[in-house]
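Standup notes
- DV: blocked on the single-chain target, sequence here:
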Amino acid sequence: MKVLVVAWYFPPLQGTGIFRTVAVVNWLARHGHQVTVIAPDRAYFERVAPLDEAMLAAVPEAVRVVEVPFPDLEDPIVNRWPIARAMDRDAWKDATRAWALSQFPEPYYGVWRERISAAALRLHDEIGFERVYATASAYVDYAVAETLFSYAGVPYVLDDRDSFLFSVYDGQDRPHADAARRWWEVLAAAASALWFVNPPIAELYRRRYPGLADRIHVVENGWEPSLLDVTRLAERPENPVFSYLGAINTGFLMEELLTAWQETVPRLPGAPELRLYGNFGTRNRAAVIPDDAEQALAAVSGKFRPALREMVQQTQGLRVMGAIPKAAVPDAYRETSVLVFFKEGGPLITSSKIYEYLATGLPIVAVVTPDHDSRRLLAQYPRAHVGDITRPETWAQVFLAAWEDAQTDDPQVRRRAVDVGARFTRERLLDEPLASFVRAADKE
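- DV (later): unblocked, structure below
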């Protein structure tokens, strides 16, 4: 079968969004299908985001990757600007954004629609695609599915790793919701299947669109064993090392995390550390691997105000590690006593990182809202120590409980924890949905 994959997040871009698509591409190639990928051009990501060159090796050689240039509205190279932008930058940007929203109702990314749709049509005339897999965000990827379906009746699956219509933080409509809803309803009506990453989001869409319920499926994120050998994580550091791995953006609960740590650290032995691994934004690449904690936190706009930066300077044992390539993540886990999961949001948010945390067999200290979807997974894990983000007086208690667990490190408990994580490998979670994707094509 000849399959077109449309993905904004794809190697060598560094970030959690790439791994699901890489797993899909590998599954399809491994089962003998001809796969073509449309992705943004490398030159754009070199300007704005950290890259992980090693992840290119995870893409099978047989997979053809077509890079389609993205018209970056923030391009700093003046020599590349059109005359209208050079004459009046703000007016040009406003006009371009308005035009982009008229093409596709997604701020910033909508400008890509014209180029990727044209590229898809050229490739279809050359190859003759039989199926399209479009994954989002960015949701402009979905426009290609609509284009090829309208042009040649090519069936498609839409994989939503966030939520096009609703904010996963509060369930309310996103900006430009009316236009997005018109697009989504057309796209969903013709889709062979609609994938969502957790049960609460899928249920939200089923309630809003009961006529589509039989095509709405939960396909959770999972973790990738080829990138994390859990049998090599047995060694533990002598000092208490608590590690957070994941993106650190303006919504990150930094103040709450530091408060909990400051209350915990005097009650820990030795020279305890709190390590923060992750990107501090993407546009400012200098902040990806910072020289010090103050610089890193200052690079993230909004929430990290001067008072919080002062708090960072005064926090004992805090180490801001910056972004690391995926190949270095196992080393970070090996150097960790306890994994830290402080996550904003509520019932619609799970976090892709939690699956990999479960795979390690390490103690996890998680502080989230009482209705956070990650609790559904953490409840199955024997080394989860879960606190309530609305009850600050309990935060240090769960940190200390996790440290006690790390000291005990009962082999039988560790084995049960690893067994829980093994339920959530990406291949296990993707196998049936992708097999169904292929079977549907065979029936046509």
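- Follow-up: Residues 225-422 form a domain with the Rossmann fold fold (CATH 3.40.50.2000).
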